[in-house]
Give the backbone structure.
Amino acid sequence: MTEILAQDGAGPAVTGADRTAAPVTDRVTDHPAWPRLKRAVEEIRVWQSADGSIDFDAEGAPARTDAETALGRVVDAVEGLAPLLPHDAAYHTALVADLRAWADGGFAVPDFLDSLLAFRPAADRADGRQHLAVFAMYTQNGNPDRNLEAVVFRMVWPEWLAELERTRYDNPLFCGITFEDFTAGYDTNSAVFFPETIAVREVPERFTWGGIFCDREAARFRRVIDAAVTTLGVELPDDLRALVADQDRCQQAFVLWDMIHDRTHSHGDLPFDPFMIKQRQPFWMYGLEELRCDLTAFREAVRLAEDGFPQGRDVQFAVLFDRMFRFPVTGARERNYDGLGGQLLFAYLHRHDVVRWTDNTLHIDWERAPRITNQLCGEIEDLYRAGIDRPKLVHWFAAYDLVATYLAPHPGSRWAKGPDALDLTQPPRKLVDDVLPDEFPLSMFYEALAKKLKNVIASTKGIRGSAPGAAAGDGAETTDRTAA
Protein backbone atom coordinates (compact mmCIF):
# COMPACT_ATOMS: atom_id res chain seq x y z
CA MET A 1 0.00 0.00 0.00
CA THR A 2 1.15 3.59 0.40
CA GLU A 3 3.80 5.02 2.59
CA ILE A 4 1.21 7.25 4.26
CA LEU A 5 -0.31 4.39 6.24
CA ALA A 6 2.98 2.57 6.64
CA GLN A 7 4.37 5.43 8.74
CA ASP A 8 2.84 4.24 12.02
CA GLY A 9 -0.58 5.10 10.59
CA ALA A 10 0.07 8.85 10.61
CA GLY A 11 -1.16 11.11 7.82
CA PRO A 12 0.48 14.47 7.10
CA ALA A 13 -2.30 16.44 8.81
CA VAL A 14 -1.42 15.05 12.25
CA THR A 15 1.98 15.69 13.80
CA GLY A 16 3.74 14.30 16.83
CA ALA A 17 3.27 17.67 18.50
CA ASP A 18 -0.51 17.32 18.09
CA ARG A 19 -0.45 14.03 19.96
CA THR A 20 1.78 15.11 22.82
CA ALA A 21 -0.32 18.24 23.37
CA ALA A 22 -3.43 16.19 24.14
CA PRO A 23 -4.80 16.87 27.63
CA VAL A 24 -5.18 14.01 30.08
CA THR A 25 -8.74 12.66 29.88
CA ASP A 26 -10.50 9.34 30.29
CA ARG A 27 -13.52 10.33 28.20
CA VAL A 28 -13.06 9.43 24.55
CA THR A 29 -15.13 12.29 23.18
CA ASP A 30 -13.13 14.85 25.20
CA HIS A 31 -9.86 13.75 23.60
CA PRO A 32 -8.74 15.90 20.62
CA ALA A 33 -8.27 12.75 18.54
CA TRP A 34 -12.04 12.15 18.54
CA PRO A 35 -13.07 15.23 16.51
CA ARG A 36 -10.19 14.48 14.13
CA LEU A 37 -11.52 10.95 13.72
CA LYS A 38 -15.03 12.24 13.06
CA ARG A 39 -13.85 14.72 10.45
CA ALA A 40 -11.80 12.10 8.62
CA VAL A 41 -14.63 9.57 8.63
CA GLU A 42 -17.12 12.15 7.34
CA GLU A 43 -14.68 13.07 4.57
CA ILE A 44 -14.44 9.44 3.47
CA ARG A 45 -18.18 8.70 3.74
CA VAL A 46 -19.16 11.07 0.93
CA TRP A 47 -16.76 9.31 -1.45
CA GLN A 48 -18.17 5.83 -0.84
CA SER A 49 -20.56 3.88 -3.02
CA ALA A 50 -23.52 1.97 -1.55
CA ASP A 51 -21.38 -1.14 -1.03
CA GLY A 52 -18.72 0.85 0.81
CA SER A 53 -16.15 0.95 -1.99
CA ILE A 54 -14.68 4.12 -3.50
CA ASP A 55 -14.87 4.43 -7.29
CA PHE A 56 -12.00 6.71 -8.24
CA ASP A 57 -13.31 6.96 -11.81
CA ALA A 58 -16.68 8.36 -10.73
CA GLU A 59 -17.53 12.02 -11.19
CA GLY A 60 -16.44 14.03 -8.16
CA ALA A 61 -14.30 11.18 -6.81
CA PRO A 62 -11.11 12.07 -4.92
CA ALA A 63 -7.64 11.19 -5.99
CA ARG A 64 -6.54 7.95 -4.41
CA THR A 65 -3.84 9.79 -2.50
CA ASP A 66 -6.53 12.00 -0.92
CA ALA A 67 -8.44 8.92 0.24
CA GLU A 68 -5.24 7.41 1.61
CA THR A 69 -4.45 10.60 3.48
CA ALA A 70 -7.92 10.76 5.04
CA LEU A 71 -7.76 7.10 6.02
CA GLY A 72 -4.35 7.76 7.56
CA ARG A 73 -5.98 10.31 9.83
CA VAL A 74 -8.58 7.71 10.85
CA VAL A 75 -5.85 5.22 11.72
CA ASP A 76 -3.85 7.80 13.64
CA ALA A 77 -6.91 8.89 15.63
CA VAL A 78 -7.82 5.30 16.50
CA GLU A 79 -4.29 4.67 17.72
CA GLY A 80 -4.42 7.89 19.73
CA LEU A 81 -7.68 6.90 21.42
CA ALA A 82 -6.92 3.21 21.97
CA PRO A 83 -4.94 3.73 25.22
CA LEU A 84 -8.14 5.04 26.83
CA LEU A 85 -9.81 1.71 26.10
CA PRO A 86 -7.44 -1.11 27.05
CA HIS A 87 -10.32 -3.61 27.19
CA ASP A 88 -10.70 -3.16 23.38
CA ALA A 89 -6.98 -3.40 22.57
CA ALA A 90 -7.30 -6.54 20.43
CA TYR A 91 -10.16 -4.99 18.48
CA HIS A 92 -8.36 -1.72 17.80
CA THR A 93 -5.27 -3.59 16.61
CA ALA A 94 -7.42 -5.64 14.22
CA LEU A 95 -9.30 -2.49 13.16
CA VAL A 96 -6.11 -0.71 12.14
CA ALA A 97 -5.10 -3.79 10.14
CA ASP A 98 -8.51 -3.89 8.40
CA LEU A 99 -8.34 -0.18 7.57
CA ARG A 100 -4.87 -0.54 6.09
CA ALA A 101 -5.94 -3.62 4.14
CA TRP A 102 -8.85 -1.63 2.69
CA ALA A 103 -6.45 0.98 1.37
CA ASP A 104 -4.01 -1.69 0.17
CA GLY A 105 -6.85 -3.20 -1.86
CA GLY A 106 -7.58 0.06 -3.62
CA PHE A 107 -10.63 0.91 -1.46
CA ALA A 108 -12.70 -1.90 -2.98
CA VAL A 109 -15.66 -3.34 -1.04
CA PRO A 110 -14.46 -3.11 2.58
CA ASP A 111 -13.98 -6.17 4.77
CA PHE A 112 -14.08 -5.76 8.56
CA LEU A 113 -14.47 -9.43 9.46
CA ASP A 114 -11.25 -9.72 11.45
CA SER A 115 -11.95 -6.65 13.55
CA LEU A 116 -15.60 -7.67 13.97
CA LEU A 117 -14.51 -11.01 15.40
CA ALA A 118 -12.12 -9.21 17.76
CA PHE A 119 -14.81 -6.80 19.01
CA ARG A 120 -16.53 -8.44 21.98
CA PRO A 121 -18.28 -5.83 24.14
CA ALA A 122 -20.61 -8.43 25.68
CA ALA A 123 -17.72 -10.55 27.00
CA ASP A 124 -17.28 -8.32 30.05
CA ARG A 125 -20.25 -6.03 30.52
CA ALA A 126 -19.31 -3.30 32.98
CA ASP A 127 -21.68 -0.45 33.74
CA GLY A 128 -20.39 2.82 32.26
CA ARG A 129 -17.58 1.24 30.25
CA GLN A 130 -16.75 3.13 27.05
CA HIS A 131 -16.22 1.60 23.62
CA LEU A 132 -15.04 3.14 20.35
CA ALA A 133 -16.19 1.29 17.23
CA VAL A 134 -15.31 2.05 13.62
CA PHE A 135 -16.79 -0.08 10.85
CA ALA A 136 -18.13 0.12 7.31
CA MET A 137 -21.80 -0.56 7.97
CA TYR A 138 -25.38 0.41 7.36
CA THR A 139 -27.61 1.62 10.19
CA GLN A 140 -31.07 0.14 10.52
CA ASN A 141 -33.79 2.80 10.24
CA GLY A 142 -30.98 5.08 9.16
CA ASN A 143 -28.50 4.88 6.31
CA PRO A 144 -28.95 1.83 4.01
CA ASP A 145 -25.43 2.08 2.57
CA ARG A 146 -22.30 0.52 4.04
CA ASN A 147 -20.45 3.74 4.79
CA LEU A 148 -17.61 4.13 7.24
CA GLU A 149 -19.01 5.06 10.64
CA ALA A 150 -17.53 5.84 14.04
CA VAL A 151 -19.48 5.65 17.28
CA VAL A 152 -18.53 6.03 20.93
CA PHE A 153 -20.91 4.46 23.42
CA ARG A 154 -21.16 3.42 27.05
CA MET A 155 -22.45 0.16 28.46
CA VAL A 156 -25.59 0.26 30.60
CA TRP A 157 -25.28 -2.67 32.96
CA PRO A 158 -26.35 -1.78 36.53
CA GLU A 159 -26.13 -4.52 39.13
CA TRP A 160 -29.89 -5.02 39.33
CA LEU A 161 -30.01 -5.72 35.58
CA ALA A 162 -26.96 -7.99 35.71
CA GLU A 163 -28.61 -9.98 38.51
CA LEU A 164 -31.83 -10.39 36.51
CA GLU A 165 -29.84 -11.57 33.50
CA ARG A 166 -27.97 -14.10 35.67
CA THR A 167 -31.02 -15.44 37.45
CA ARG A 168 -34.09 -15.00 35.22
CA TYR A 169 -33.41 -13.73 31.70
CA ASP A 170 -30.19 -15.24 30.42
CA ASN A 171 -29.01 -13.18 27.45
CA PRO A 172 -25.21 -13.28 27.29
CA LEU A 173 -24.97 -11.40 23.98
CA PHE A 174 -27.16 -8.43 24.88
CA CYS A 175 -25.62 -4.97 25.34
CA GLY A 176 -27.64 -2.06 26.63
CA ILE A 177 -25.78 1.04 25.47
CA THR A 178 -25.97 4.83 25.33
CA PHE A 179 -24.50 7.25 22.83
CA GLU A 180 -21.48 9.39 23.61
CA ASP A 181 -21.09 10.63 20.03
CA PHE A 182 -21.39 9.37 16.45
CA THR A 183 -20.90 10.09 12.76
CA ALA A 184 -23.66 10.82 10.24
CA GLY A 185 -25.07 7.30 9.91
CA TYR A 186 -26.44 7.61 13.44
CA ASP A 187 -27.76 11.13 12.93
CA THR A 188 -30.91 9.25 11.95
CA ASN A 189 -33.68 7.18 13.53
CA SER A 190 -31.41 4.18 14.14
CA ALA A 191 -31.27 2.97 17.75
CA VAL A 192 -29.42 -0.32 17.27
CA PHE A 193 -25.85 -1.47 16.76
CA PHE A 194 -25.87 -4.95 15.28
CA PRO A 195 -22.95 -6.97 13.85
CA GLU A 196 -25.16 -8.12 10.96
CA THR A 197 -24.93 -4.64 9.44
CA ILE A 198 -21.14 -4.61 9.10
CA ALA A 199 -19.34 -5.18 5.77
CA VAL A 200 -17.53 -8.54 5.89
CA ARG A 201 -16.22 -11.03 3.34
CA GLU A 202 -18.28 -13.84 4.88
CA VAL A 203 -20.88 -14.13 7.60
CA PRO A 204 -19.41 -15.44 10.86
CA GLU A 205 -20.73 -18.74 12.20
CA ARG A 206 -22.17 -16.88 15.17
CA PHE A 207 -22.35 -13.34 16.43
CA THR A 208 -21.22 -12.50 19.94
CA TRP A 209 -23.06 -9.26 20.74
CA GLY A 210 -25.91 -6.97 19.85
CA GLY A 211 -26.43 -3.43 21.11
CA ILE A 212 -29.53 -1.26 21.55
CA PHE A 213 -29.27 2.43 22.42
CA CYS A 214 -31.65 2.77 25.35
CA ASP A 215 -30.95 6.50 25.65
CA ARG A 216 -32.30 7.22 22.16
CA GLU A 217 -35.28 4.94 22.71
CA ALA A 218 -36.04 6.65 26.01
CA ALA A 219 -35.59 10.18 24.67
CA ARG A 220 -37.88 9.74 21.67
CA PHE A 221 -40.41 7.85 23.82
CA ARG A 222 -40.53 10.75 26.26
CA ARG A 223 -40.95 13.38 23.58
CA VAL A 224 -43.57 11.55 21.51
CA ILE A 225 -45.55 10.16 24.43
CA ASP A 226 -45.64 13.54 26.16
CA ALA A 227 -47.17 15.00 22.99
CA ALA A 228 -49.56 12.06 22.51
CA VAL A 229 -50.81 12.20 26.10
CA THR A 230 -51.46 15.92 25.76
CA THR A 231 -53.17 15.52 22.38
CA LEU A 232 -55.41 12.68 23.54
CA GLY A 233 -56.17 14.05 26.98
CA VAL A 234 -54.97 10.89 28.74
CA GLU A 235 -55.03 11.08 32.53
CA LEU A 236 -51.79 9.53 33.74
CA PRO A 237 -51.23 8.22 37.26
CA ASP A 238 -48.65 10.30 39.10
CA ASP A 239 -45.92 7.66 38.92
CA LEU A 240 -46.27 7.31 35.16
CA ARG A 241 -46.23 11.04 34.62
CA ALA A 242 -43.01 11.10 36.63
CA LEU A 243 -41.60 8.37 34.38
CA VAL A 244 -42.12 10.44 31.22
CA ALA A 245 -40.27 13.33 32.89
CA ASP A 246 -37.25 11.23 33.90
CA GLN A 247 -34.67 10.26 31.24
CA ASP A 248 -32.63 7.96 33.48
CA ARG A 249 -35.71 6.11 34.70
CA CYS A 250 -36.92 5.65 31.14
CA GLN A 251 -33.52 4.29 30.12
CA GLN A 252 -33.76 1.69 32.88
CA ALA A 253 -37.17 0.65 31.61
CA PHE A 254 -36.00 0.36 28.03
CA VAL A 255 -32.84 -1.60 28.77
CA LEU A 256 -34.88 -4.15 30.73
CA TRP A 257 -37.58 -4.29 28.02
CA ASP A 258 -34.95 -4.75 25.32
CA MET A 259 -33.11 -7.50 27.18
CA ILE A 260 -36.26 -9.58 27.64
CA HIS A 261 -37.54 -8.83 24.12
CA ASP A 262 -34.25 -9.85 22.54
CA ARG A 263 -34.07 -13.26 24.25
CA THR A 264 -37.73 -14.01 23.47
CA HIS A 265 -36.89 -14.43 19.77
CA SER A 266 -35.39 -17.80 20.71
CA HIS A 267 -37.87 -18.84 23.42
CA GLY A 268 -41.35 -20.31 23.16
CA ASP A 269 -43.23 -22.57 20.73
CA LEU A 270 -41.47 -21.21 17.66
CA PRO A 271 -41.02 -21.95 13.99
CA PHE A 272 -37.49 -23.02 13.07
CA ASP A 273 -36.50 -19.45 12.16
CA PRO A 274 -38.52 -17.18 14.47
CA PHE A 275 -36.77 -14.03 13.28
CA MET A 276 -37.61 -15.04 9.68
CA ILE A 277 -34.49 -13.39 8.28
CA LYS A 278 -33.88 -16.14 5.73
CA GLN A 279 -37.50 -16.40 4.64
CA ARG A 280 -39.74 -14.23 2.51
CA GLN A 281 -42.98 -13.93 4.40
CA PRO A 282 -45.93 -11.53 4.55
CA PHE A 283 -45.04 -8.60 6.76
CA TRP A 284 -47.79 -9.36 9.28
CA MET A 285 -45.72 -12.40 10.28
CA TYR A 286 -42.86 -10.10 11.21
CA GLY A 287 -45.31 -7.84 13.03
CA LEU A 288 -46.70 -10.68 15.11
CA GLU A 289 -43.22 -11.91 16.04
CA GLU A 290 -42.11 -8.46 17.21
CA LEU A 291 -45.36 -7.95 19.09
CA ARG A 292 -45.06 -11.40 20.71
CA CYS A 293 -41.63 -10.45 22.04
CA ASP A 294 -42.86 -7.10 23.36
CA LEU A 295 -45.91 -8.65 25.02
CA THR A 296 -43.70 -11.30 26.59
CA ALA A 297 -41.62 -8.47 28.05
CA PHE A 298 -44.88 -6.91 29.26
CA ARG A 299 -45.97 -10.15 30.94
CA GLU A 300 -42.58 -10.53 32.62
CA ALA A 301 -42.77 -6.90 33.73
CA VAL A 302 -46.06 -7.64 35.52
CA ARG A 303 -44.31 -10.46 37.39
CA LEU A 304 -41.32 -8.27 38.19
CA ALA A 305 -43.57 -5.56 39.60
CA GLU A 306 -45.25 -8.17 41.79
CA ASP A 307 -41.80 -9.23 42.98
CA GLY A 308 -40.92 -5.69 44.02
CA PHE A 309 -38.92 -4.43 41.04
CA PRO A 310 -39.98 -0.80 40.36
CA GLN A 311 -38.82 -1.11 36.74
CA GLY A 312 -41.59 -3.67 36.16
CA ARG A 313 -44.35 -1.07 36.31
CA ASP A 314 -42.33 1.25 34.07
CA VAL A 315 -41.79 -1.42 31.41
CA GLN A 316 -45.52 -2.14 31.28
CA PHE A 317 -46.28 1.50 30.63
CA ALA A 318 -43.45 1.87 28.11
CA VAL A 319 -44.60 -1.15 26.09
CA LEU A 320 -48.22 -0.04 26.03
CA PHE A 321 -47.64 3.59 25.13
CA ASP A 322 -44.71 3.17 22.74
CA ARG A 323 -46.56 0.42 20.91
CA MET A 324 -49.90 2.24 20.77
CA PHE A 325 -48.90 5.87 20.26
CA ARG A 326 -45.50 5.95 18.56
CA PHE A 327 -45.08 2.80 16.48
CA PRO A 328 -48.25 3.05 14.33
CA VAL A 329 -47.57 6.65 13.26
CA THR A 330 -43.79 6.39 12.80
CA GLY A 331 -42.12 5.58 9.49
CA ALA A 332 -43.57 4.82 6.07
CA ARG A 333 -46.73 2.79 5.66
CA GLU A 334 -45.08 0.33 3.28
CA ARG A 335 -44.75 -3.04 5.06
CA ASN A 336 -44.46 -1.27 8.41
CA TYR A 337 -44.63 -4.36 10.59
CA ASP A 338 -43.92 -2.61 13.90
CA GLY A 339 -46.66 -0.12 13.10
CA LEU A 340 -49.01 -3.01 12.41
CA GLY A 341 -48.24 -4.56 15.80
CA GLY A 342 -49.04 -1.29 17.53
CA GLN A 343 -52.33 -0.98 15.66
CA LEU A 344 -53.24 -4.54 16.67
CA LEU A 345 -52.51 -3.91 20.35
CA PHE A 346 -54.62 -0.74 20.40
CA ALA A 347 -57.51 -2.39 18.54
CA TYR A 348 -57.43 -5.40 20.86
CA LEU A 349 -57.54 -3.24 23.98
CA HIS A 350 -60.27 -1.10 22.43
CA ARG A 351 -62.35 -4.16 21.51
CA HIS A 352 -62.06 -5.35 25.13
CA ASP A 353 -63.00 -1.94 26.52
CA VAL A 354 -59.62 -1.21 28.11
CA VAL A 355 -59.22 1.95 26.03
CA ARG A 356 -62.16 4.17 25.07
CA TRP A 357 -62.19 7.24 22.82
CA THR A 358 -65.06 9.32 24.19
CA ASP A 359 -65.65 13.09 24.08
CA ASN A 360 -62.32 13.54 22.26
CA THR A 361 -60.49 12.03 25.23
CA LEU A 362 -58.78 8.67 25.54
CA HIS A 363 -59.69 6.80 28.70
CA ILE A 364 -57.63 3.84 29.92
CA ASP A 365 -58.75 1.19 32.39
CA TRP A 366 -55.42 0.85 34.19
CA GLU A 367 -56.67 -1.97 36.42
CA ARG A 368 -57.70 -4.26 33.52
CA ALA A 369 -54.90 -3.31 31.11
CA PRO A 370 -52.36 -5.91 32.34
CA ARG A 371 -54.78 -8.84 32.17
CA ILE A 372 -56.13 -8.01 28.70
CA THR A 373 -52.67 -7.28 27.30
CA ASN A 374 -51.47 -10.65 28.57
CA GLN A 375 -54.56 -12.18 26.97
CA LEU A 376 -53.44 -10.95 23.53
CA CYS A 377 -49.99 -12.38 24.20
CA GLY A 378 -51.68 -15.71 24.90
CA GLU A 379 -53.61 -15.61 21.62
CA ILE A 380 -50.40 -15.04 19.64
CA GLU A 381 -48.66 -17.86 21.52
CA ASP A 382 -51.61 -20.17 20.74
CA LEU A 383 -51.21 -19.26 17.05
CA TYR A 384 -47.52 -20.21 17.19
CA ARG A 385 -48.18 -23.45 19.03
CA ALA A 386 -50.80 -24.56 16.50
CA GLY A 387 -48.59 -23.43 13.62
CA ILE A 388 -46.14 -26.27 14.20
CA ASP A 389 -48.78 -28.66 12.80
CA ARG A 390 -49.73 -26.50 9.80
CA PRO A 391 -48.27 -26.07 6.33
CA LYS A 392 -46.64 -22.68 5.89
CA LEU A 393 -49.41 -21.15 3.77
CA VAL A 394 -52.13 -22.35 6.14
CA HIS A 395 -50.21 -20.81 9.02
CA TRP A 396 -49.94 -17.51 7.16
CA PHE A 397 -53.71 -17.47 6.64
CA ALA A 398 -54.33 -18.27 10.31
CA ALA A 399 -52.10 -15.36 11.29
CA TYR A 400 -53.91 -13.12 8.79
CA ASP A 401 -57.25 -14.12 10.33
CA LEU A 402 -55.98 -13.23 13.81
CA VAL A 403 -54.93 -9.76 12.67
CA ALA A 404 -58.05 -9.23 10.56
CA THR A 405 -60.26 -10.07 13.55
CA TYR A 406 -59.23 -6.71 15.02
CA LEU A 407 -57.94 -4.65 12.08
CA ALA A 408 -59.80 -3.99 8.83
CA PRO A 409 -57.85 -5.14 5.75
CA HIS A 410 -57.54 -2.88 2.72
CA PRO A 411 -60.75 -3.21 0.64
CA GLY A 412 -58.64 -4.11 -2.40
CA SER A 413 -56.81 -6.94 -0.69
CA ARG A 414 -56.71 -10.32 -2.41
CA TRP A 415 -55.55 -12.01 0.78
CA ALA A 416 -58.65 -10.75 2.60
CA LYS A 417 -60.80 -12.62 0.08
CA GLY A 418 -59.26 -15.91 1.11
CA PRO A 419 -57.39 -18.74 -0.64
CA ASP A 420 -59.76 -18.84 -3.62
CA ALA A 421 -58.58 -15.35 -4.63
CA LEU A 422 -54.93 -16.44 -4.90
CA ASP A 423 -53.11 -18.62 -7.41
CA LEU A 424 -52.28 -21.51 -5.13
CA THR A 425 -50.23 -23.21 -7.83
CA GLN A 426 -47.52 -20.66 -6.96
CA PRO A 427 -45.08 -21.35 -4.10
CA PRO A 428 -45.86 -19.43 -0.90
CA ARG A 429 -42.99 -16.97 -1.39
CA LYS A 430 -44.50 -15.90 -4.73
CA LEU A 431 -47.88 -15.26 -3.09
CA VAL A 432 -46.20 -12.62 -0.96
CA ASP A 433 -46.29 -10.48 -4.12
CA ASP A 434 -50.07 -10.31 -3.69
CA VAL A 435 -49.73 -8.65 -0.27
CA LEU A 436 -50.48 -4.94 -0.52
CA PRO A 437 -47.76 -2.55 0.77
CA ASP A 438 -50.29 -1.28 3.31
CA GLU A 439 -52.42 -4.38 3.82
CA PHE A 440 -53.99 -3.02 7.03
CA PRO A 441 -54.35 0.77 6.64
CA LEU A 442 -54.50 3.17 9.55
CA SER A 443 -57.86 3.69 11.21
CA MET A 444 -59.44 7.13 11.29
CA PHE A 445 -58.15 7.49 14.85
CA TYR A 446 -54.57 6.91 13.78
CA GLU A 447 -54.85 9.01 10.63
CA ALA A 448 -55.79 11.98 12.81
CA LEU A 449 -53.15 11.19 15.44
CA ALA A 450 -50.43 10.86 12.76
CA LYS A 451 -51.14 14.39 11.52
CA LYS A 452 -51.00 15.83 15.02
CA LEU A 453 -47.75 14.08 15.96
CA LYS A 454 -45.96 14.36 12.62
CA ASN A 455 -43.67 17.24 13.55
CA VAL A 456 -42.89 15.85 16.98
CA ILE A 457 -41.90 12.48 15.53
CA ALA A 458 -39.74 14.17 12.90
CA SER A 459 -37.95 16.12 15.64
CA THR A 460 -36.66 12.90 17.22
CA LYS A 461 -34.32 12.16 14.30
CA GLY A 462 -30.82 11.84 15.76
CA ILE A 463 -31.98 12.50 19.32
CA ARG A 464 -29.86 11.31 22.23
CA GLY A 465 -30.73 11.31 25.89
CA SER A 466 -27.54 13.02 27.00
CA ALA A 467 -28.15 16.07 24.80
CA PRO A 468 -28.82 19.38 26.56
CA GLY A 469 -32.53 20.04 26.81
CA ALA A 470 -33.56 16.46 26.10
CA ALA A 471 -36.57 16.58 28.39
CA ALA A 472 -39.90 15.55 26.95
CA GLY A 473 -41.65 18.13 24.83
CA ASP A 474 -38.88 20.73 24.70
CA GLY A 475 -36.43 21.78 22.01
CA ALA A 476 -33.84 19.08 22.64
CA GLU A 477 -30.90 18.71 20.32
CA THR A 478 -31.76 16.70 17.24
CA THR A 479 -28.79 15.84 15.38
CA ASP A 480 -38.51 0.88 13.16
CA ARG A 481 -38.30 -1.04 10.79
CA THR A 482 -39.68 -2.48 7.64
CA ALA A 483 -39.55 -5.94 6.13
CA ALA A 484 -38.58 -6.91 2.61
